[in-house]
Design brief:
CATH architecture of the largest domain: 3-Layer(aba) Sandwich
Number of domains: 2
Number of helices: 13
Shape: globular
CATH class of the largest domain: Alpha Beta
Distance between the termini: 43 Å
CATH topology of the largest domain: D-Maltodextrin-Binding Protein, domain 2
Oligomer: single chain
Radius of gyration: 20 Å
Strand content: 15-25%
Structural class: alpha/beta
Number of strands: 12
CATH superfamily of the largest domain: Bacterial extracellular solute-binding protein, family 7
Largest sheet: 6 strands, mixed
Length: 344
């Protein structure tokens, strides 16, 4: 259970005592100091490839005018609460997984759909087109939440990692309790007759260790970084993916000088490219790390792959229809995503 009330109390306390959340922190020498927060453990690839280089590039481009206080590893708040922290001003910039707030950001789950992308860079560059100012996700997803995407990173295609059960084909997934990110991934697992359990990544280790879950839908990199108990892992194909967006509130953005906005935008473009290239490069290495730990890599037969493709063929259209029913443009976003991916 997330201690949401306690977090709100903590946040209110910060606002009341310091009164710093409503304005950027300004030191005596007029430097602009901004708080950056994420959920990631030490050594995670996104801080290495994207967050830290982004901060360094912005500081350099502004001749040291902009400085950052960095709070990794849920130091400022739980992964699920990072959106509310940036909206309230407790944090200035956060890296957030939209599916943790699927009630507020249901459209970004299009990136979770199985078979949509073959690499992190293909997915990330597609999302960047959709999230830029004036595009469909910027207008219909992020603006209504009062935030702006500075950069994004979409993980490589996710695989199934299992603590005990060998997964030789789709039938072996039946009845398994698997950690999923959000609604689109949950739909994928349900199609395969598994049981999806929505959970933030940092909580998966304990749940699988205790036997509450049988496994998870994760990338190899996430499995390694969160030390997920794993005996078997699938290879090839993919069960969807996940999006991470680096966001600032529109209120904070409007307070920034134009040269700072320019520096952040340019650093964001570089961060997206670095993040996806780094994740794609490390995915093969992380698979080797799992093998070295004794994890058995299961490669499905062509017949099993075709069976899964048939089972999951309708996931995208069903997801879009479900989102449409909620009054959100699911079908429109799916169409725009396919067009952006294919360069149309």
């Amino acid at each position: 259970m997330y201690k949401h009330n306690a977090l709100k109390t903590f946040a209110v306390g910060i606002l009341a005592v310091s009164a710093l959340a409503s304005q950027p922190v300004v030191a005596q020498d007029k430097k602009l100091v901004l708080r950056v927060a994420d959920q990631f453990p030490q050594g995670h690839f996104l801080p290495r490839y994207a967050i830290k280089p982004w901060m360094e590039q912005v500081t350099k481009a502004t001749n040291g005018e902009v400085q950052f206080e960095y709070y990794p590893g849920e130091q400022l708040g739980k992964a699920k609460d990072l959106l509310s922290l940036v909206q309230s001003g407790v944090a200035d910039v956060v890296l957030f997984a939209p599916s943790y707030a699927s009630d507020k950001m249901p459209l970004t789950a299009v990136m979770e759909l199985p078979g949509m992308f073959t690499s992190s860079c293909q997915a990330t560059l597609t999302h960047s087109k959709l999230a830029k100012e004036g595009s469909i996700l910027a207008q219909r997803e992020y603006a209504p939440n009062g935030v702006r995407v500075l950069f994004s990173a979409i993980y490589p295609p996710y695989q199934l990692v299992s603590a005990k059960r060998k997964i030789d084909g789709p039938k072996d997934i039946e009845g398994m309790k698997l950690r999923v990110l959000g609604g689109a991934m949950d739909l994928t697992v349900r199609k395969l007759k598994g049981v999806g359990v929505k959970m933030a990544s940092p909580e998966a280790f304990e749940a699988i260790s205790r036997g509450t879950l049988d496994g998870a839908i994760f990338s190899y990199g996430v499995t390694v970084n969160y030390n997920i108990p794993t005996k078997y892992a699938t290879a090839g194909g993919g069960f969807g993916s996940a999006a991470a967006i680096f966001i600032i509130s529109e209120n904070r953005w409007k307070q920034l000088p134009d040269p700072v906005k320019k520096a952040m935008t340019e650093a964001g473009e570089a961060a997206s490219r670095n993040a996806c290239a780094g994740m794609d490069k490390e995915e093969a290495g992380d698979l080797e790390k799992l093998k070295q730990k004794g994890v058995t890599v299961v490669r499905w037969s062509e017949a099993d792959k075709k069976e899964m493709d048939v089972i999951l063929a309708s996931v995208a259209s069903e997801w879009a229809a479900e989102v449409d029913k909620r009054g959100k443009p699911g079908s429109e976003v799916l169409k725009a995503t396919l067009e952006a991916r294919d360069g149309r």
